[in-house]
Structure formats: structure tokens, C-alpha cells
Amino acid sequence: MGDAMSTGCSLTVRNGGVVVLSVVEEVDMATAGAVRRALHDLLDERPDTLVLDLRRVAFFGSSGISALVGAAHRADRLGVRLVVATTRRGVLRALEITGAADLVAVVASPEQAVASSVPEPRDGARIRFTQGVG
User: Fold this and answer.
1) Where would I find the STAS domain in this sequence (predicted)?
2) Which of the ends of the chain has fewer CB neighbours closer than 10 A, N or C?
3) What is the CATH number of the domain that holds 58?
4) Separation CA 86–CA 97 (nearest Å)
């Protein structure tokens, strides 16, 4: 996990079995491997919910999508709820275009993932972006 920390990732553990992995700047070929390893390491701990916080990510490329898709399949096998938190249009668009939004729930913030009932993925909607209240 130390490698991921050097690429703009931080980890927050919240009450109730929720872990938040926050990523900043870019998820591209240079950084996606560290993000992938961090996601897999955290999934191995089997939290109830793992939130990938992409609110401060300016670019989420195909390598990031690949890491997310792999993590979504792994989370499904392990019974972990994987949620993406972002309001960035570019990130939302990448999730929608690639179909990654069909594999995970998408919310505006980690707090929303914790506080509210997040729709389960694979419900037929192209993207489940829930606007924050307030």
C-alpha cells in the first residue's frame, strides 16, 4: 500500500466497516498500477464497503477504468460493496462510456455512500449518479 500512497492516494477508515481510498490528480498508465494494488489489498481485508473517492481526479484514463473493472469483479466475488464517489464530469463520462458505471454504484461523496442507501449496480441503469443534498 505504500506504493499507492506515493502516487496520490490516501486511506480513510470510517466507522461501520467502510474504507475510503481517495485518489488525486490523474489515474493513467503511470499511476493505475498503484491504484489497482491498493484496491486489491483493501478488498482482501473484506470491508463491508470500499469507496473509491475520485472527486479530486482530473483525468481517469483507460488504465484507471481497467483497474476499477478488475476491482469491481473482485469485490463482487468477495461480497464487498464497491462505490465510486465523484462529481467530475470527465470521470463520470469515462465510467458511462466504458460501461464501468454498470458495475459499481456512483455517488457524489464518500459521506453519501456511508449515509444513504446506494442503489446496487447492474439494475439496468447506465449510471447511478445521486446528487448530494445540501
Assistant:
1) 17-117
2) C
3) 3.30.750.24
4) 16
The answer to whether residues 116 and 107 touch, using CB atoms and an 8 Å cutoff, is: yes
pTM over 0.85: no
Residue by residue, pLDDT tens for the chain (134 residues) are: 444 444 577 777 766 789 999 999 999 999 999 999 999 999 999 999 999 999 999 999 999 999 999 999 999 999 999 999 999 999 999 999 999 999 999 999 999 988 764 555 544 433 344 444 33
**Dist CA 38 CA 134 (whole Å):** 32
* CA–CA separation, 8 and 80 (whole Å): 24
The CA–CA distances, whole Å, from 2 to 5, 9, 32, 41, 130 equal 5, 9, 14, 11, 32
Q: What DSSP designation does 133 have?
A: P
